[in-house]
Amino acid sequence: MSAKQLLINQINNMNFGVDQEIYNKSTGNAHYEISKLAGDLTQEYNLLQGATLDLSNQMSTPDKTGALDLTVNVGGQSYNGQVCLSGDKVIINKAILEMIAELFPQTQMGDIAQYPDYLYFSREEMSGVWESMLQYRDNQAPQELKDLLVFLVEAIPDQYFTASLSGVTFKLDQAGLEDVIYNVLLKVRDEKERFAGIIVGMSTMYGPNPDLDPETMREDIIAGIDKAVADGSFPTKEQIHLMSQFVQVQDFYYQASLPPSAAKEFKLTLKLSETSGLPGEITITSKTTGSKNNINTNANASLDIKTIDGNNISGTLNQTYMYQAKRADSQMVMSAKASNPSTGGTLLDFELKGDSSQQADSGLKIALPELNEENSMDITSLIEQGTDEDRL
């Protein structure tokens, strides 16, 4: 069996490697804090220095219910609110509106005192969300995602895959990336019906979309491919190569483990050229070790670029994740800096820290608000009207 076929088999049998109970019924909490906020660009937002967000959540997938309590502390003031899920309904308590009105006074919300205790709206897409959660619970990736990944891997030439006892490795340089993109596009052209079906499947993965007719979308995708081929606008190798004037791949590496306890690794380093207008470098790495009930992941991303007006911009995102004994814990630190070398001034110095935990709770029962005509209002039509206006 080839290295590529080994990877395709792994995709077809893909699971999330986590005990299913945490996706069945669970409780959790999270805390986020703006630990640093300085620089010339932040003078209007000094109030946010030290602001915190605390979240407490409950989720019961089989009951299709969820509750999220949140507390925002900013400028010495504390604001509370709650959002609940019940089947296809999203329920918001009035405290959320009061918080928005206090923090963003420019928002036109009318006299909040006239609102009932709860506002709610219904969305058909929620049925797909719950179905997806059941797939997570049963440790299965959505079939639509598997179909897309298999399609892409099939298009990649065998030479970019190698196999070892620890897993399958996929590695590219700039020339390899251009070759892969070209071969993927050829597969899209030659298997346009299959490709269109996959894209439609991804678009409806979370359930029916009232604004989307799958058959029309499928026909439009096929017609668009045919038109591009007929009028000569379908990308050529030469056109794909032109992108190297703007972005170059310094390193692209992915290792998919075959033994359950072997490490999974990913690394991507992109070099942005002067021609792009934002010269610099972007790096993303992640490494996962462990097996089903003892998983550790470290992920990092960094950005270092120079803007067209000569400012330096850098940023980092570091995150750790650990799953053990039906409990998931994570920590993250995100930072961003911007400076003007010509003046030596600091434009932005920002840092956000956060941590969260989620624990399986098989006996969980979520107490949702009991809605009636006196204490609630259905705003589904208002939400749909706003969506229509945005579309226009």
Derived from helix and strand composition plus strand pairing, the structural class reads alpha+beta
Number of E strands: 16
Percent of residues in helices comes to: 25-40%
Instruction: Note poorly predicted spans.
Output: 388-392
Along the chain, the helix and strand elements come as HHEEEEEHEHHEEHHHHEEEEEEEEH
Roughly how many Å apart are the termini?
A: 52 Å
Computed Rg? 25 Å
Instruction: Give the overall silhouette.
Output: globular
| Count of individual helical segments | 10
Largest sheet: 16 strands, mixed
Strand % is 35-45%
Q: What is the residue-mean pLDDT, rounded to a whole number?
A: 89
**Side-by-side strand order of the widest sheet:** 7-8-9-10-11-12-13-14-15-1-2-3-4-5-6-16
Describe the structure.
The chain is α+β, with helices and mostly antiparallel strands. It has a domain at 26-138 and 365-391. It has ten helices and 16 strands. It has helices at 3-12, 21-24, 94-103, 126-137, 143-155, 174-190, 192-203, 214-231, 237-241, 380-391; strands spanning 25-38, 52-60, 65-74, 77-86, 89-93, 118-122, 161-163, 167-172, 247-257, 264-272, 280-291, 294-306, 312-324, 327-340, 345-360, 376-378. A 16-stranded mixed sheet has the order 7-8-9-10-11-12-13-14-15-1-2-3-4-5-6-16. The longest helix is centred in the middle third of the chain and has 18 residues, at 214-231. The radius of gyration is 25 Å and the shape is globular. It starts with a helix and ends with a helix. Mean pLDDT is 89; it is low at 388-392.
